[in-house]
Design brief:
- The chain is of the alpha/beta class.
- It has one domain (about 1-230): Aldolase class I (TIM Barrel), CATH 3.20.20.70.
- The protein is built from nine helices and eight strands.
- The termini are close together.
- About 55% of the residues are buried.
- The mean pLDDT is about 95.
């Protein structure tokens, strides 16, 4: 399984890289589950990584198709491997498909789109996670992420492991890679791998002082060791 570590700036990117993260994810934790960093910060993160690992970019939740396209194009210009887009406020499968397809068109062939489902989807006024898998596949996305919209409870306190495993299987059946995030820690990595997840994403567990603290190389190294001991998933082309 691959370890994705979310970083807020170039310094954190270097710490995550040194700790052994498989994917460096640009995200501003002060701006919510998928808070985007400023374009110049994203460029600096990509520069710090310098092609040694794939970089992903959290781009917030989907809005109007034109706005989606602009956000994706800016990230693609920085050289990211994939972009993550959420569906808060979007409960229509048809609208999710249309906006996802707009993101895929803007991303082109070299950058993959990941649509984000929320375990607390009712609080986010979002599409149910099982329906996100179908919408992502229909839109041409490459993968899906199950995360939490509101950061007051970890994923595995909101959903039973069996439910998460069923969602991972649904993603795979739709031809997508499946990522898990949302308050996950070192002890959750083996469980995520056992459920078939291809990528596990962390922020708070990689930081000194919680999700708004700085990324710690030592914490990343401990998480990376756990991830390396788990089976590799089905997304080798990306991560």
């Amino acid at each position: 399984m691959r370890l994705l570590v979310s970083v807020a700036d170039a310094r954190e990117a270097r710490a995550a890289l040194a700790g052994g993260a498989d994917v460096i994810d640009a995200k501003d934790p002060r701006r919510g589950a998928l808070g985007p960093v400023a374009p110049d910060v994203l460029a600096a993160i990509c520069g710090a990584v310098a092609g040694r690992r794939p970089v992903s970019a959290a781009l917030g939740d989907l809005g109007a198709a034109a706005a989606v396209g602009r956000r994706v194009e800016l990230a693609v210009a920085c050289g990211v491997a994939f972009v993550k887009l959420g569906l808060a406020g979007i409960a229509s499968a048809a609208r999710a498909r249309a906006l996802g397809a707009a993101a895929v068109r803007a991303a082109g062939e070299r950058t993959a789109v990941v649509l984000v489902a929320y375990a607390d989807w009712r609080r986010a006024a979002s599409l149910a996670p099982a329906r996100v898998c179908a919408a992502a596949a229909a839109a041409g996305a490459r993968g899906v992420l199950l995360d939490t919209a509101v950061k007051d409870a970890p994923l595995f306190t909101l959903w039973a492991a069996s439910e998460v495993g069923a969602w991972v299987q649904a993603a795979h059946a739709a031809g997508l890679f499946a990522a898990l995030a949302g308050g996950l820690g070192e002890r959750d990595i083996a469980l995520a791998a056992a459920l078939g997840a291809d990528v596990v994403g962390v922020r708070g567990a990689a930081c000194a002082g919680g999700r708004t603290g700085p990324v710690s190389r030592a914490r990343v190294a401990a998480l990376a060791a756990r991830a390396r001991a788990a089976p590799r998933g089905r997304a080798p082309a990306l991560v």
